Amino acid sequence: MHDGSSTISTALDNCKFLTNLNFSICRNKIGDIGAKNIGLGLSNCTHLTNLELGISENQIGYDGALTIGTAIGKCKFLTNLKFSIFGNKIGDKGAKNIGLGLSNCSQLTNLKLDISSNQICDDGASTIVTALGNCKFLTNLNFSIQGNKIGDKGVKNIGLGLSNCTQLTNLVFSSE
User: Fold this and answer.
1) What DSSP assignment string belongs to 69-128?
2) Which pLDDT belongs to residue 4?
3) In Gene Ontology terms, what is one molecular function of this protein (predicted)?
4) Could you tell me which residues come within 8 angstroms of residue 74 by beta carbon, excluding any fewer than 6 positions away?
5) The pTM is what?
6) Domain layout of the chain by residue ranges
7) Which residues does residue 52 pair with via DSSP β-bridges, in sequence order?
């Protein structure tokens, strides 16, 4: 699978002026190396305004999430992001890096983020929601975090972070 993800990375490298991308490679075994390769290619697609990225259930850990988060952060023109990374093992460190990437996407208006079942604790969840406060134009948020290890502190910080999303008109929050 790593040769395949490397080829995808090379293909994305050549798409520097891409504005819309719908990319889904769920339920495979790309792991951290595959996620890194995809992230490296995606990091060159800096003109994206619409991105649907599905990399769920792929045995991705912290290292893969780091590269993906960095790549998303380079997409400064994103207005619509649908990002599904559920069922991996990114943990707090990976969630923090995704949050840091999202904090650079200040033009976002629509975000659907599913980070369920990723061994995320209070700190990772808090970082992601705090980052959303930088998305000053965010009006629609669908945020799924169920199946993680988030306690009272994390839930409190999620509430505080969401209170900074002052332009929200639609919120779907799932933490069963």
Assistant:
1) HHHHHT-TT-SEEEEE--SS--HHHHHHHHHHHHHT-TT-SEEEEE--SS---HHHHHHH
2) 76
3) translation initiation factor activity
4) 43, 46, 104
5) 0.95
6) 2-174
7) 22, 82
The token pair at 42 is 């995606």
- Single out the residue of 129, 43, 145, 171 nearest to residue 85, CA to CA: 145
Q: How many of the other CB atoms lie within 10 Å of CB of 166? A: 9
**Mean pLDDT across the stretch 166-171?**
96
61 alpha carbon, distance to own chain's centre: 13
Residue 8 in tokens = 């995808």
Residue 30 in tokens:
């790309």
SS3 90: coil
Residue 173: strand, helix, or coil: strand
Q: How far is CA 176 from CA 112, 115, 121, in A?
A: 17, 13, 14
At the fourth CATH level, the homologous superfamily of domain 2-174 is Ribonuclease Inhibitor (3.80.10.10)
Per-residue pLDDT tens digits for 147-157: 999 999 999 99
Sign of CA dihedral 49, 116, 67, 154: positive
